[in-house]
User: What shape does this take?
Amino acid sequence: MTKKERKIVLPGGKCNFCGNRYSVQGMSAHLKKCVEKDKQDQALLQNKIIKLSSIFHIVVRGECFYWLQIEADGKTTLYELDSFLRDIWVECCMHLSMFRINDINYSYSPMKEYDERSMNVALHKALKPGTRFDYEYDFGSTTHLILKVLGVRTGKIDKKGIRLLARNDAPEILCSYCDNLATDICAECSEWTCKNCRKKHECDEEMLLPVVNSPRAGVCGYCG
Assistant: This one.
């Protein structure tokens, strides 16, 4: 069966505050002036229980078309950021993970002989505006994310310490064999299939995983 060249429609994303859609670059500019976001920020400032803090605006990029924009309290730890990324994007089998910031590795169980440090460090101690850093989940079938601090402001954030500002819309990926949208991706060969073309795919059917809005789609046993 002749396979079609895979086509991908690059997605924009939706602002979690006003619901409008923008590209990842356009979203960064929009969030600085989003009226609905500003209303929430002003309401948080009136909360006397929550203390003022440094709020980090971070963009997270996965492979190809996957991205997130988040805000995090500067007192939030890398450990908590790791938990957030696991929950929203990568967790499948409790694999190990690591941040790399300015050539220093931060992990759960740091190895002194490799000059590693603990993830139990606050963002404001490890990051500053413009810092570009890396995150790796699963050192076997690795999912690699690139993060960048777009800016830091003084303000308040809810008790969770991290909030999602925006994320990419689910990409529309076409089946490798026809013009239908793919519903599955093969964990062995990374081909995309729709429901009608599953049997045309040469790998074992148990290797097919559901298409999900995550850079870990088709890897290990990740199902979203």
Residues 78-90 form the longest helix (13 residues). Residues 91 and 222 are 7 Å apart (CA to CA). The chain has a mean pLDDT of 92.
